[in-house]
């Protein structure tokens, strides 16, 4: 694997900052909105998010023998989509925020795992507590954007993947078309905080979410980070005109 340079950023601005600033903010925001997170995703994406989840699962190249690690897995949207759509042998569902995993566990009780064995653990994606070459696939949806040391997290993903394994990452991105990008930024500034207030009465947290999306590297720059972390065959596919992209890389 190549040597990587690590530095931490304020995930709201992309500027260099102490990791604790972003980590404490993420704990607060996602701990607060955990119960409403799935509903917020559905409304704010006009229902498109399920299609994006399907594309992410498809990109992970799962087989019935796969052991899948879902990092920053939140309430389990990717994991449960994988269990339904392309069931692997086992899913390790992790997140930094315990309240998000509590919701994911309720979904397991409701049978959304479709018989696939699940395990849950609170995990910081910057320090993954699993052995080298442990997983056939790693997924992450809307997680890397909220991590202050992104290169450290990507290096950890690369480390725990088995040789030949796939990383599939769904993230908000940068629409290439200037007009569409401008309209999207208006949506982020005005509508996302409104949805946040409507569902949680906490508009400021959703101002952060909008800011973090605008501050995240564009598709080309994020792909370069994946290559720096050691991934091969790095590619991405845009959806909704580049509002989101599914990035993939292979170990």
Automatic annotation (TrEMBL):
GO MF entries: demethylmenaquinone methyltransferase activity
EC number, UniProt record: 2.1.1.163
Pathway named in the protein's UniProt entry: Quinol/quinone metabolism; menaquinone biosynthesis; menaquinol from 1,4-dihydroxy-2-naphthoate: step 2/2
SUPFAM superfamilies: S-adenosyl-L-methionine-dependent methyltransferases (SSF53335)
Gene3D superfamilies referenced in this protein's UniProt entry, alphabetically: Vaccinia Virus protein VP39
Residues reported to bind S-adenosyl-L-methionine: 75, 95, 124-125
InterPro entries in the cross-refs: SAM-dependent_MTases_sf (IPR029063), UbiE/COQ5_MeTrFase (IPR004033), UbiE/COQ5_MeTrFase_CS (IPR023576)
Keywords assigned: Menaquinone biosynthesis, Methyltransferase, S-adenosyl-L-methionine, Transferase, Ubiquinone
GO BP of this protein: menaquinone biosynthetic process; methylation
Reaction(s) catalysed (UniProt annotation): a 2-demethylmenaquinol + S-adenosyl-L-methionine = a menaquinol + S-adenosyl-L-homocysteine + H(+)
Family per similarity comment: Belongs to the class I-like SAM-binding methyltransferase superfamily. MenG/UbiE family.
PANTHER family noted in UniProt: 2-METHOXY-6-POLYPRENYL-1,4-BENZOQUINOL METHYLASE, MITOCHONDRIAL (PTHR43591:SF24), METHYLTRANSFERASE (PTHR43591)
NCBIfam families, A to Z: MenG_MenH_UbiE (TIGR01934)
HAMAP family registered for this protein in UniProt: MenG_UbiE_methyltr
Function: Methyltransferase required for the conversion of demethylmenaquinol (DMKH2) to menaquinol (MKH2).
Stated name of the protein: Demethylmenaquinone methyltransferase
Source organism of the structure: Slackia piriformis YIT 12062
Phylogenetic placement of the source organism: Bacteria, Bacillati, Actinomycetota, Coriobacteriia, Eggerthellales
Gene encoding the protein: menG
